[in-house]
Structure prediction request, 308 residues.
Amino acid sequence: MIYTITLNPALDRILSVESIEYHNPNRVDGDERYAGGKGIDVSKALTRLGVENKAIGFAGGYTGRELEGCLFNLGVNCEFVRISAETRINVYIHETAKNRQISFNLRGPFIQSFELMEMIDTIKRLKDANYVIISGSVPLGVNPIIYQKIVEIAKAKGATVVLDSDDEPLKAGLRAKPHIIKPNVHELERLMATQLNSIGSIVDAAVQVHERGIDVVLVSMGARGVLLVTEDERWIARPPRVTVTNTIGAGDSAVAGFVQALVLGESYKEAAKRAAATGTAATLIQDVSITPENVSTLLAQVSVRSVS
Prediction:
């Protein structure tokens, strides 16, 4: 079984306007709401790809119930620890005339200590954990060291652990040496405390992280594709040019595609290709609404090259 863990999920609200007018009322042409959060988006992508998985997370209040209902309607299997505070709402403004997006991400609810321990107990009870994917930020009231603890629990269960986070939670999780990490370039820059202005510098940084004891470093680089670094392999998988409609969940869909490839027994080279294709498919439409057909079409157009 594949499990995704999202400690700070959100209900994503996407408002569409033709153009943003400052100091004047803006007419909203579209108002859509989706279950969100990085691990949640991984689960949604895996479900659309036909890969069995289960989403684990915190949920509270009416917003939390709406989030659960959205996932239920998508066919996503989930188990949430109920909390006393309200699940956050993230707001995205999509300016259609210029095809650009502004995001406003709330920090999220405060997690009580007893709620945190209930989450740890839930993770300890996971059965047949083949892959555990830990994604996103840590909510208020939770020490980032929680990611180190979750990685340790998942590894003790024999699971392959994937970590996709940023800043202190990422650094904490790395202490327990997850098998796979998936930063984007900006997250990798913050981890290494340096700017990465070229492909060569990104490769060098990924190699340094790998040498800390991380088996696979997968870096999402936007239109430049996906970089994969392991002990023996270094690949860049570059997708075709597309018209980007949405950027929410693209990196999470790349994680889903990569894990799907591993489940299918594909090589790391093919897994990098599938990650690039799946991540790109998510940019074509709102709400991680990828389809196996879209991914297959893009997969045939992804180019892969070895890097030194």
Remarks:
- The domain at 181-308 is CATH 3.40.1190.20 (UDP-N-acetylmuramoyl-L-alanine:D-glutamate ligase).
- The mean pLDDT is 95.
- The chain has two domains: 1-178, 181-308.
